[in-house]
Amino acid sequence: MNERQEQLLKFIVESHINLAEPIGSKLLADEGDLEVSGATIRNEMRELEEQGYLTHPHTSSGRIPTEAGYKYYVENIMLSVVLSKKVKSEMEELAQTEKELAAQIKRVGKFIAEWTDSAVVVAFSPDNIYYTGISNLFSQPEFQDYDRVVQFSNIFDQCEDRIEYLFALIKNNQIKILVGGQNPLGAACSLVGTRVRNGGLFVLLGPVRMDYARNASVAEFVSELFE
């Protein structure tokens, strides 16, 4: 992928994350800061589609990223996000309101689920799992489709059986991002996970359109807060 195509993919991924709708060449020309013609943009978008990084819904001329597009973005383009002091302070203060580690992590997890519109899973073992924020995902456009709702519901029905895979995949001092089909909990969602004290797991679950950069920064701060 050349530099211009990476710029295009970055803009399309980040715009789609924010807008939840297909991204057209006009928006790219107007706001993409590419300094090339609309025709060139359309040609590059077709090339990215042929390479498997973009696709387009039948009802729109705009493009959306494929799983391959999100994976490329995460692995090669994504920049880290700096969390605000206010958000960090709020998480630190919430942790201090509880005495037990598990209660601290759950309290912070509930805040993060609400702030990021994600579901949060906290696990210390396959039979000691807590999750919150499920309703946040049902409010996302991706989960208005009945089949997607069923797929998503299966994630929590089978969470206890599949969480052991995450214990094996996510190592200490690591931020792990698994996109769609890479996610052992279910391809309907992506996840960003990390380890916390006492061998625990902290996982943010969201649609494949999740804000990976922000969620990775959140997971990193949680890892530091509960190291």
From TrEMBL:
Is Mitochondrion a UniProt keyword of this protein?
no
Q: Which GO terms describe its biological process?
A: negative regulation of DNA-templated transcription
Name the InterPro entries on file. GAF-like_dom_sf, HrcA, HrcA_C, WH-like_DNA-bd_sf, WH_DNA-bd_sf
Task: Name one molecular function that GO assigns to this entry.
Answer: DNA binding
Which Gene3D superfamilies does the annotation name? Answer: 3.30.450.40, Winged helix-like DNA-binding domain superfamily/Winged helix DNA-binding domain (1.10.10.10)
Q: Which UniProt keywords apply?
A: Repressor, Stress response, Transcription, Transcription regulation
Q: Which domain of life is it from?
A: Bacteria
UniProt keyword Transport, yes or no: no
The Heat-inducible transcription repressor HrcA C-terminal domain covers 89-214
Could you tell me what this protein is called? Answer: Heat-inducible transcription repressor HrcA C-terminal domain-containing protein
Species of the source: Candidatus Magasanikbacteria bacterium RIFCSPLOWO2_12_FULL_43_12
